[in-house]
């Protein structure tokens, strides 16, 4: 059976997960997609380059560069680990800026997408609260700005349901007036893996589409729309009920195999479900749940604590990577 990724495209915003779906289905690597994996101190970094249209079509993601940081320990509220993740994020983001040709003098606009009244969607506004903004100093007292800083401005434009204005329209007006050289858009994402909820950060140079992870198709923040390079930073904070049910099947299969010693009883219990690929099984679960209105969007109960922590991790990483004067040793003084 061939896998139509379109029916799963709203399930995940992570390029890494899309790649895993396709590779699992076709049983091998994807031509035109290169991958580098590095792991140390509990931080797994995966760098994906989607190099051609065929690879883009297969995984359902735009051609470009994607970096994913997976840190399962982030769930544990380990302050020392959070500092290590900030430093690793800053290093990767600095290299990312160099890779796409952004200079150390480039003016940056940080856009925090999302609804500050809904905790799982408040990542963008919380990062904006914690980044160091400097544009007003360059505008009002440029002679007093010390070396090692660049012009950074930030805005949280709200969501359509609150403002009545598309985020892209708000940002376009700001871009027209302030003329930044780079936009960094931060948003909460959707994942198809329970393990990656609250533990993963994705960086991509393809821009962002507000609400795409939960099926909202609206105008995004991209270079084509805004005329300025746009880097997207996101963290998965929600997943679908169908994803949870699908993962439960995997856990059940593993459990029955262990209990029966792999003697074939698992197939007797679970039937044809054991022979379906992960993508086929997810499609089946979705087909059952959606007509009943039960394919809910779910977030973990710890989201209140996590969202603040990960917003600080990203804000600290951005402060370090955007301003040469800020280092991992002194970043705490610049993060609110």
Automatic annotation (TrEMBL):
Keyword NAD belongs to the record: no
Class of enzymatic activity (EC top level): hydrolase
Pro-peptide region(s): 1-13
InterPro entries the record matches: Pept_HybD-like_dom_sf, Peptidase_A25
Keyword vocabulary terms for this entry: Hydrolase, Protease, Zymogen
Family statement: Belongs to the peptidase A25 family.
Subunit structure: Homotetramer.
Protein name as catalogued: Germination protease
Native source species: Paenibacillus puldeungensis
Gene responsible for this protein: gpr
């Amino acid at each position: 059976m061939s896998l139509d990724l379109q029916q799963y495209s709203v399930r995940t915003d992570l390029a890494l997960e899309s790649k895993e779906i396709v590779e699992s289905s076709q049983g091998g690597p994807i031509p035109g997609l290169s991958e580098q994996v590095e792991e140390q101190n509990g931080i797994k970094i995966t760098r994906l380059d989607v190099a051609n249209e065929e690879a883009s079509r297969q995984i359902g993601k735009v051609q470009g560069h994607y970096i994913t940081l997976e840190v399962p320990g982030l769930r544990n509220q380990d302050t020392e680990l959070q500092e290590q993740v900030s430093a690793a994020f800053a290093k990767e983001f600095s290299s990312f800026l160099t890779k796409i040709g952004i200079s150390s003098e480039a003016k940056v606009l940080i856009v925090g997408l999302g609804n500050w009244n809904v905790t799982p969607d408040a990542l963008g506004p919380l990062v904006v609260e914690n980044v160091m903004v400097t544009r007003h100093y360059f505008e009002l007292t440029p002679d007093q700005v010390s070396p090692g800083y660049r012009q950074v401005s930030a805005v949280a434009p709200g969501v359509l349901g609150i403002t009545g204005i598309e985020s892209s329209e708000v940002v376009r007006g700001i871009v027209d007036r302030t003329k930044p050289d780079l936009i960094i858009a931060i948003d909460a994402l959707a994942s198809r893996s329970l393990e990656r909820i609250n533990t993963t950060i994705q960086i991509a140079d393809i821009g962002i589409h507000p609400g795409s992870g939960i099926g909202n198709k609206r105008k995004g923040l991209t270079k084509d729309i805004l005329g300025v390079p746009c880097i997207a930073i996101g963290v998965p904070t929600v997943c679908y009920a169908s994803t949870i049910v699908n993962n439960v099947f995997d856990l059940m299969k593993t459990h029955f195999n262990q209990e029966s010693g792999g003697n074939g009883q698992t197939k007797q219990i679970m039937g044809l479900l054991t022979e379906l690929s992960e993508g086929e099984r997810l499609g089946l679960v979705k087909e059952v749940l959606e007509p009943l209105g039960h394919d809910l969007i779910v977030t973990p109960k710890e989201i209140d604590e996590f969202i603040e922590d990960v917003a600080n991790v990203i804000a600290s990483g951005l402060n370090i990577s955007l301003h040469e004067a800020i280092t991992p040793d002194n970043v705490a003084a610049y993060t609110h």
